[in-house]
Write a structure and sequence with these properties.
The protein is mainly α. Helices cover about 60% and strands about 0% of the residues. It is built from 24 helices and no strands. The radius of gyration is 27 Å and the shape is globular. The relative contact order is 0.12.
Length: about 600
């Protein structure tokens, strides 16, 4: 492999960028929430038995306590314990500060997630071979993800490691699940088990990681992986091949439009069955029909669903309650709104804020507590435009892919009906032509399906637990919650840059003389504009990250930066007053407290 090929077709450049942007974090200490998750957490410092990690929350409190935040992240806490043990020994022998190892681990985890974004984008098959865009889609997505400024809170703050480990396990689980979709009858079970184990690791690193199991089910229905788009998906064809072979052996051969007999499809070698096992659907008893549960693709939906239920039951048994009951207005004002309309509009505005942070995070803060984020009370408020645009983009993507999505949904419902019929002991109807296994998708069809799957699985689902839709949460807005959704945004942005080259592909397929000069100029201008957009966006992301990372070096720098964005926040003012008092700046501390007294509902 040449150097140019290695740079363009491997995540090396993106990994280097992800490490370079966060070198300033190595000089930081334990700040903000680190004092509760690491410094004073006995599960991390080793003052109590390691078994306590299994029954304590992320902050070291008993999960069943009414004061617990119900944040069950035993895997991350265990990794904290290992890092603290190693850090104290390095400090004793080399004199290095303990936080250094935590920050170095966060940087390494972020680099690993960046590499996984590259690998997942490649697995989705978003890079057309004739694309004229100079940067391959996997590399473009990985570069944008590595530089996204919204990651600073998760990477520069040790507490944010929960986001990093959950994202690393979730992205790996999705790729293993894609392998299960593409594998043969005897090969995809191992990939499925690997996907479930890594999905469980994501849930134990952070509770929101469990949504990756929902992404697997969506992948089963929509099949966004490149292997299915190109070859039809071996594992997904198993059931159809078995059904078609058994039903056609008991029926006359059908004719194609040309009048010639249509030869039955030859199943893969691993799918062939003895002639004695072939039973006609019209003469056999229901129990002799091909069992949907015997086809291993049935496990691709049932196992993720079973794992999700098991996780919920485990949390309920350990915590006694799934929800946070101690939220306050200063942290989440939505439950305290005066009317239902205000609650609804403020919730929708929250969704719009998250989307605007994904697109371009111009303002970032360590804390967004009330009244920094004020209520939206009327329809005429300009802030409603954010969520209208966000949901409009989602509807547009779904409408573009409606045909492909409806076709896949019909086939999935057909398989579910056949399974239910077999379990009920009723005959399974012969395979209908409309339910036949799909052929290879065109590049445009595949691109539309992928865009919807990425938005649902990597943007919408990870944000759903914090969306204040089904239940209220303890934090109104937090940048760290966008770590996984930013991977989805980066992939969608890279897909946009490359998929706009469809005209370029058609131009390559024609002789140069057949394209009008004006059309060639337009294609060149389009290419230059896309390249300019990508370059400016990457440069802006990198500059913002470089400027933002040193702000997490100490508590003082964190709240000085937060005051520039949220000067009306009572919580930010209180923390700034505490930090000023610790630095013996008593006049500044009193000034902050005077402002807090004048803030309503503080």
């Amino acid at each position: 492999m040449s150097l140019r090929s290695a740079l363009l077709h491997t995540p090396l450049l993106a990994v280097i960028l992800s490490l370079a942007l966060y070198t300033a974090s190595l000089r930081g200490g334990f700040v903000y929430d680190d004092r509760f998750t690491v410094v004073t957490n006995k599960d991390v410092t080793g003052e109590v038995s390691a078994w306590g990690i299994l029954v304590h929350d992320y902050w070291g409190q008993d999960l069943r306590s009414p004061m617990s935040h119900k944040s069950y992240r035993p895997l991350t806490t265990a990794l904290f314990r290992v890092q603290h043990w190693a850090g104290t020994r390095l400090q004793a022998h080399l004199g290095t500060p303990v936080p250094l190892l935590f920050h170095a681990t966060s940087m390494a985890a972020h680099a690993a997630v960046t590499a996984q974004v590259h690998s997942l984008t490649a697995a989705l098959g978003l890079d057309p071979p004739r694309s004229r865009f100079p940067v391959p889609a996997p590399l473009a997505a990985a570069l944008l993800f590595a530089a996204h400024p919204v990651h600073v809170e998760a990477v520069a703050n040790a507490t944010g490691q929960a986001e990093l480990w959950a994202a690393l396990a979730a992205l790996l689980a999705l790729q293993l699940y894609f392998r299960a979709l593409d594998g043969g009858r005897g090969g995809h079970v191992g990939w499925l088990l690997g996907a479930l184990w890594t999905g469980a690791a994501a849930a134990l690193a952070k509770e929101t990681g469990v949504v990756v199991l929902g992404g697997m089910v969506l992948a089963y229905v929509m099949k966004p992986n490149a292997g299915f788009g190109a070859e039809g998906g071996t594992a997904m064809r198993c059931f159809f091949d078995d059904r078609r072979s058994s039903s056609r052996r008991g029926e006359p051969s059908t004719r194609e439009e040309g009048g010639e007999a249509a030869a039955p499809p030859t199943p893969p070698r691993s799918d062939r069955r003895p002639r004695s096992a072939a039973v006609s659907a019209s003469t056999s008893s229901p129990r002799d029909l091909p069992r949907p549960s015997q086809d291993l693709s049935f496990l691709l939906v049932s196992m993720p669903a079973a794992c999700t239920v098991s996780y919920v039951l485990l949390r309920s048994a350990l915590a006694g309650d799934q929800l946070v009951r101690i939220y306050r207005q200063v942290e989440n004002p939505i439950p305290f709104a005066a009317s239902r309309l205000t609650r609804a509009l403020t919730t929708l505005d929250l969704h719009g804020r998250y989307v605007s942070m994904l697109l371009f995070p111009a303002q970032l803060s360590a804390d967004w507590s009330y009244p920094c984020t004020d209520y939206v009370q009327v329809w005429a408020d300009w802030r409603n435009a954010r969520w209208v645009i966000a949901y409009g983009l989602l509807c547009f993507a779904v409408l573009r892919a409606r045909r492909e999505l409806c076709a896949e949904a019909r086939r999935w419902l057909r398989r579910a009906a056949e399974t239910a019929a077999w379990l009920a002991g009723r005959p399974v109807l012969p395979l209908e032509p409309s339910d036949a296994p799909p052929g290879p998708r065109s590049a445009d069809q595949h691109s539309r399906v992928v865009s919807v799957w990425v938005f649902l699985s990597l943007v919408l689902l990870p944000l759903l637990p914090a969306a204040n839709v089904f239940f209220y949460v303890g934090t109104f807005l937090a940048e760290r919650l966008l770590y996984v959704p930013s991977a989805g945004w980066s992939i969608l942005c890279a897909q946009f840059l490359v998929s706009c080259s469809k005209e370029d592909e058609e131009k390559d397929a024609k002789p140069a003389s057949s394209s009008p000069p004006f059309a060639r100029k337009l294609l060149s201008v389009s290419l230059l504009l896309r390249l300019l957009f990508f370059s400016l966006l990457l440069a802006a992301y990198s500059w913002k990250t470089l400027a933002r990372t040193p702000e997490w070096a100490s508590d003082e720098s964190i709240f000085v930066a937060a005051l520039r964005v949220c000067p009306r926040s009572a919580k930010v003012r209180m923390n700034a007053a505490i930090v000023a008092r610790q630095l013996n700046a008593f006049d500044a501390s009193l000034a902050h407290l005077d402002v807090v007294e004048r803030i309503p509902d503080a």
